[in-house]
Amino acid sequence: DTAVSQTPKYLVTQMGNDKSIKCEQNLGHDTMYWYKQDSKKFLKIMFSYNNKELIINETVPNRFSPKSPDKAHLNLHINSLELGDSAVYFCASSPEGLLEAFFGQGTRLTVV
Amino acid sequence: AQSVTQPDIHITVSEGASLELRCNYSYGATPYLFWYVQSPGQGLQLLLKYFSGDTLVQGIKGFEAEFKRSQSSFNLRKPSVHWSDAAEYFCAVGAGNTPLVFGKGTRLSVIA
Fold first, then answer.
1. Contact B13, B78 (CB under 8 A)
2. Pairing between β-strand B106-111 and β-strand B10-14 as defined by DSSP bridges
3. Residue A30 has pLDDT above 60, yes or no
4. Cα gap A59→A71, rounded to integer Å
5. Percent of chain B whose pLDDT exceeds 90
6. Is residue A97 very low, low, confident or very high in pLDDT (cuts 50, 70, 90)?
């Protein structure tokens, strides 16, 4: 009964590759997010979607492209991966209006 | 813009001792405040939240937090720490329909 699930949990890839991370929530929430957690554990918002529409796009390289096929899914595609993209990426969701965010288990991306 | 400061990067306490983790926020109106816990290799789990009303809020795992508007603080407390409480703790602030803004986290170590 996982509420917010991400796949894969670990991803190791070479510089220059393109990769995707998938996220699904079964909570019926309208809003989904992608956060990036760096090596110092700092969590920073990347994108926010509400009902499949992009609401917030923080200062993120355009190599990162989120896609929301429906309000239960928010995938993250990354082109031309760089070493600095290595981090843990968290998907989260929240109900309409800001209440607490529910987080997935994270995807640890390592670019070599 | 909202911001959160967690002044303590790392705290070590003895098992059975009391705990207080500090959090200060910056926001113009009444914020929504949260504490999350992240165990190694895991996602973030909500411990407790404050929206309005009673300024002392109870959470899961025996944690509580007190909202003090005059000090712009939302400190997390636990009367008796267990070894399983060792983790990273994040304070977060939210408002309206904007994503949560997180502090940089406090790592809690518990010694016997």
1. no
2. parallel
3. yes
4. 23
5. 79
6. low
| Interface membership of A3 toward B (CB under 8 Å) | no
Q: Which of A29, A59, A98, A107 is the mutation pick for testing B, counting most B CBs within 10 A?
A: A98
DSSP state of B99: P
Beta strand A53-57 with A10-13 is unpaired
Between positions 57 and 86 of A, the ones with CB within 8 A of B are none
Cross-chain Cβ contact A43/B90 below 8 Å: yes
Cβ atoms B100, B91 nearer than 8 A: no
Amino acid at B26: S
Cα distance between residue A4 and residue B38, in whole Å:
15
What is the average pLDDT score of chain B? 93
Question: What's the pLDDT band for B29 if we cut at 50, 70, 90?
Answer: confident
Chain A residues lying within 8 Å of B96, measured CB to CB: 97-98
Cβ distance B87 to B94 under 8 Å?
Answer: no
Query: Chain B residue with minimal CA distance to A36?
Result: B102
Measured over all CA atoms, what is the biggest interatomic distance in chain B, rounded to whole angstroms?
A: 43
Establish if A107 touches chain B: CB-CB under 8 angstroms: no
Q: What whole-number distance in Å separates Cα of residue B40 and Cα of residue B84?
A: 11
Q: What is the pLDDT of residue A98?
A: 56
- pLDDT, tens digit (0-9, with 9 covering 90-100), for A47-95: 988 888 887 777 889 999 999 999 899 999 999 999 999 999 999 999 8
